[in-house]
Design brief:
Oligomer: single chain
Bound molecules: 5'-O-(acetylsulfamoyl)adenosine
Shape: globular
Number of helices: 19
Helix content: 25-40%
Structural class: alpha/beta
Strand order of the largest sheet: 14-13-10-8-9-16-17-25
């Protein structure tokens, strides 16, 4: 057990446990510094050497980075590879064919093991089936699937034939699904009859049917339906086919389609501060490289480890650290269909014990919910379970508060497991700022230092680095292999969002604020600096929610802000002006529920506002700008002390404050 020590800033530091450092891939601060120095001295050479080490190339690349069309950077462009070959065939060729690639645990607890060989056979059958349906290299395929082996297989099958997948999280509504299908111009959708989570069935196929009737989806020629529950779903003749049937007809051998390193492996839609969700476009070569190297170094993954990332494949974490990273390095991983609280809040601990999980990666919001559950019900407390197989823990998606960090470290990690607090984004493809567990002493609440080769910095509005101890804007000063390549179909928005003129168009703008520790230089992320909320680690644009609200016939105007929430990190708080007089009492309650459901229907349940407050108006400047800054104060339940003299209607603040 390693105890914390106090450093000069009074923040606790947990040193690297000796036993961990001895066997770690990056086993000391000196080893980390050496990697950083290598990258510093020969940036392109550093990445090229990793790309040769971690990726198998069908045709080797001759050039590392192409900056000629900045900020549309290209990496390893004349190299050819296949992501699915890298994740499956080459492991089998290396003798891992019978090794377990995936331990799948279903919602009801049923467990199935899949070897690398078995996974390749399934991927190949589906890849052949997609080809038989006419899917070609470069076509987009939308996946609307539960957390499942079939989901991973579908992603890998697309990669195998050079089709670009776009996974849509099963919690998004028909409208959101439609928007994504249309924007991507998908030729085919793969879905399931139903998704099963926490004992409840959600009708995915019915939502696909609805999405396709909303218009704009003429590009879709086929829908492949996986019968997960065997629920009786209507099939559209000539359009819908069953997954089992199309796979059964195919050979389990499918030669990989070799693609350029820059070929788009996938699109993944994510929320921005304005407008509709953006289709983040990722490459094949650079992305796969970062997925592999971060899985190995950040998680210190070894051949005997059992890795478990709890993220759904509908989010980027489920792409990089379920569908690609662990397979690319020949690991064994757990894939879980269900939720952490079913049949009870000990599900994670029971599964870690049963599958002897050694590396566990989850979100702070899940940890906070499970702390609460354990504190109110002894039966689900982790101390009732044998968690001794664990050697490393990780978190992702949002800042982790030090109290939750300490609990995770003590109660789950038994005081012996380092915690990697990994900062990254959909756009970055993989870890950007993260501890390497054999190299960095840990400070709760800090993601420590950039991954070797990532040139992250905290700067002021002019792009100048601020001194340690002073807050600023997080940027990345050099392009890196797994970075976003474009916003699908909107290059202008790509430039504006990520390479704004503020920094001469030279720095990648993450959209987060950060501060570095005065003594250690460790980074702490202070949160989004734009109108993006982070609710339970899920990104939500306030504009999207506002648009959903005003699409309701009764709503005249809406403003959405975040407020801190103990459990979900941030909670969505909506201020609404109706086209009729302001409702109060029972009527307000009913209307708030109606609006909540409306947002759920428009975007998905995750976007439902927690608070809805009705007002006669919203606080506006004389030029008509809504003062969100003041609404954030009201949302927190605090009194506005700021100057409100520029407001057209200062009295509205009192009304909104009382309207809860
Ligand atoms: C992987 C993922 C990205 C946003 C990002 C941050 C926040 C993510 C951390 C974090 C503090 C972390 N992709 N974020 N990880 N904040 N510490 N370790 O979450 O595109 O969905 O979200 O999430 O604000 O910009 S994401």
């Amino acid at each position: 057990m390693t105890g914390p020590t106090e450093n000069t800033t009074q923040s606790k530091q947990y040193p690297v446990p000796d036993a961990f450092a001895r066997t770690a891939h990056v086993g000391s601060r000196a080893a980390y510094d050496k990697l950083c120095a290598d990258a510093q001295n020969d940036y392109e050479g550093y990445w090229a050497s990793l790309a040769r080490q971690f990726v198998s190339w069908h045709k080797p690349f001759t050039k590392s980075l192409d900056e000629s069309n900045a900020p549309f950077f290209k990496w390893f462009e004349d190299g050819e590879l296949n992501a699915s070959y890298n994740c499956l065939d080459r492991n089998i060729d290396a003798g891992l064919g019978d090794k377990t690639a995936i331990i799948f645990e279903a919602d009801d607890g049923q467990v199935t093991h899949y070897s690398y060989k078995a996974l390749l056979a399934r991927v190949s059958k589906l890849a052949n089936a997609l080809k038989a349906q006419g899917v070609k290299k470069g076509d987009r395929v939308v996946l609307y699937l539960p957390m499942s082996v079939e989901g991973v297989v579908a992603m890998q099958a697309c990669a195998r034939i050079g089709a670009t997948h776009s996974v849509v999280f099963g919690g998004f509504s028909a409208q959101s699904l439609r928007d994504r299908i249309e924007d991507a111009g998908a030729v085919l959708v793969i879905t399931a009859d139903e998704q099963l989570r926490g004992g409840k069935a959600l009708p995915l196929k019915a939502i696909v049917d609805e999405a396709l009737t909303l218009g704009g989806c003429d590009s879709v020629r086929q829908v492949i339906v996986w019968q997960r529950t065997g629920g009786n779903v209507p099939m559209v003749a000539g359009r819908d086919v069953y997954l089992d049937e199309v796979m059964a007809a195919q050979s389990d051998v499918c030669p990989p389609e070799w693609v350029s390193a820059e070929h788009p492996l996938f699109l993944l839609y994510t929320s921005g501060s304005t407008g509709k969700p953006k289709g983040v476009q990722h490459s094949t070569g650079g992305y796969l490289l970062h997925a592999a190297v971060t899985t190995k170094w950040t998680f210190d993954l070894k051949p005997d480890d059992v890795f478990w990332c709890t993220a759904d494949i509908g989010w980027v974490t489920g792409h990089t650290y379920v569908a690609y990273g662990p397979l690319a390095v020949g690991g064994t991983q757990v894939v879980f269909e269900g939720v952490p609280t079913y049949p009870d809040a000990a599900r994670f601990w029971r599964m870690i014990q049963a599958h002897k999980v050694s590396i566990f990666y989850t979100a702070p919001t899940a940890i906070r919910a499970l702390i609460k559950a354990a504190e109110s019900n002894e039966a689900v407390h982790p101390r009732n379970f044998d968690l001794s197989s664990l050697r490393l823990l990780g978190t992702v998606g949002e800042p982790i508060n030090p109290a939750a960090w300490e609990w995770y470290h003590r109660e789950i990690g038994g005081g012996r497991c380092p915690i990697v607090d990994t900062f990254w984004q959909t756009e970055t493809g993989g870890h950007m700022i993260t501890p390497l567990p054999g190299a960095h002493a840990l400070t709760p609440g800090s993601c420590t230092l950039p991954f070797p080769g990532i040139d992250a910095a905290v700067v002021d509005e002019t792009g100048k680095e601020v001194p340690w101890g002073q807050g600023g804007v997080l940027v990345v000063r050099k392009p890196w292999p797994s970075m976003i390549r474009n916003i699908w179909g909107d290059s202008e928005r790509f430039k504006k969002s990520y390479y704004p003129a503020d920094f001469n168009g030279k720095y990648y703008l993450a959209g987060d604020g950060a501060i570095r520790d005065e003594h250690t230089g460790y980074f702490t992320i202070t949160g989004r600096i734009d109108d993006v909320l982070n609710v339970s680690g899920h990104r939500m644009g306030t504009m999207e929610i506002e648009s959903a609200l005003v699409s309701h016939p009764l709503v005249a105007e809406a403003a959405v802000v975040g407020r801190p929430d103990d459990l979900t990190g941030e909670a969505i708080c909506a201020f609404v002006v109706l086209k009729r007089p302001r409702p109060t009492g029972e009527e307000a309650k009913q209307l708030a529920n109606e609006l909540r459901n409306h947002v759920g229907h428009e975007i998905g349940p995750i976007a439902k506002p927690k608070d809805i407050r009705f007002g006669d108006n919203l606080p506006k400047t004389r030029s008509g700008k809504i003062m969100r800054r003041l609404l954030r104060v009201v949302a927190k339940g605090e009194t506005v002390t700021q100057d409100t003299s520029t407001l057209e209607n200062p009295a509205i603040l009192d009304q909104l404050a009382q309207s809860n």
